[in-house]
């Protein structure tokens, strides 16, 4: 998929991975709607991007992905502004074992909600142009992070949902591809104080630190480049891209079961 004048929506885009995804899509010619609950950071980012890429290429919309009303309104506004939606990056996410209900609500339910509402604009069955949806999962969605069972469950859910939606889209004729990016530890605020968010599993803080040392850390730009690959490569559908500083590996929905021993963990 060539990105020139394509319309993209990125959730959780005011900072971190989402910000880098938005910038990468803009650099490659897309128009981008930035969705985030952080209005101050979001508006500041849009101003900076307007100066760099010109007026009319970006749009900031306040959106809590837990809200059906806000998500629906934001996607409608993006579609009206850009003349449709070609790309959705469901990126918003949190990690906090103390608030496990909210973790599931944002990380998994937010992805499902965003996908279903975006398909109203993207699916060829609804008069859309088709396109691609890329969900930010995690290596924790492929092999468990022992200190974060709920985060792990949410990301397993994202990977499973992505795989199933890819198959459903192919069988139903949506014209929309579905992929997931599964990075290891990433240099963001989310993981900078991860050991303070382990709740009842705080006794496993040392094991978590050791895993971070073992796997190493990725920059947000490295993750964004892989998202770009999943967006532009039209042969990619139903795939999870496992990404660490050492290697990356594509796993189709048929071979995810052949991942290395999950007991060894991973994020």
Based on secondary structure, the structural category is alpha/beta
Helix residue percentage: 40-55%
Mean pLDDT: 93
**Beta fraction:** 15-25%
N- and C-termini, Cα separation: 29 Å
Q: How large, in whole angstroms, is the Cα Rg?
A: 17 Å
Number of helical segments?
8
In terms of per-residue confidence, which ranges show pLDDT below 50 for 5 or more consecutive residues? Answer: 254-266
Spatial order of the strands in the main sheet?
A: 3-2-1-4-5-6-7-8
Q: List SSEs in N-to-C order.
A: EHEHEHEHEHEHHHEE
Q: Could you tell me the number of beta strands?
A: 8
What's the story with the biggest beta sheet? 8 strands, mixed
Describe the global form: globular
Tell me about this structure.
By secondary structure, the protein is an alpha/beta fold. Helices cover 44% and strands 16% of the residues. The protein has eight helices and eight strands, in the order E-H-E-H-E-H-E-H-E-H-E-H-H-H-E-E. Strands 3-2-1-4-5-6-7-8 form an eight-stranded mixed sheet, with helices on both faces. Helix 2 links the parallel strand 2 and strand 3. The protein is globular. The model is unreliable at 254-266 (pLDDT under 50).
């Amino acid at each position: 998929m060539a990105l020139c004048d394509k319309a993209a929506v990125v959730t959780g885009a005011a900072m971190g991975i989402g910000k880098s995804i938005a910038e990468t899509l803009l650099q490659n010619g897309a128009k981008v709607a930035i969705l985030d609950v952080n209005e101050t950071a979001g508006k500041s980012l849009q101003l900076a991007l307007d100066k760099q890429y010109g007026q009319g290429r970006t749009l900031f919309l306040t959106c809590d992905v837990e809200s059906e009303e806000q998500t629906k309104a934001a996607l409608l506004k993006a579609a009206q502004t850009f003349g449709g939606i070609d790309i959705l990056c469901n990126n918003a996410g949190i990690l906090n074992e103390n608030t496990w209900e909210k973790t599931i609500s944002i990380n998994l339910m937010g992805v499902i909600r965003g996908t279903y509402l975006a398909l109203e604009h993207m699916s060829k069955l609804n008069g859309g142009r088709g396109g691609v949806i890329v969900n930010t999962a995690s290596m924790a969605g492929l092999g468990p992070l022992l200190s974060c069972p709920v985060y792990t469950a949410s990301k397993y859910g994202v990977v499973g949902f992505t795989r199933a939606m890819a198959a459903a889209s192919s069988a139903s004729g949506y014209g929309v591809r579905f992929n997931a990016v599964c990075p290891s530890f990433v240099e963001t605020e989310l993981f900078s104080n991860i050991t303070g968010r382990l709740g009842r599993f705080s006794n496993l803080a040392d094991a978590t630190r050791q895993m971070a040392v073992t796997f190493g850390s990725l920059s947000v730009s490295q993750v964004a480049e892989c998202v770009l690959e999943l967006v532009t490569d039209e042969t990619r559908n139903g795939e999870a891209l496992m990404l660490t500083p050492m290697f990356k590996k594509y796993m189709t929905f048929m071979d995810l079961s052949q991942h290395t021993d999950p007991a060894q963990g991973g994020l």
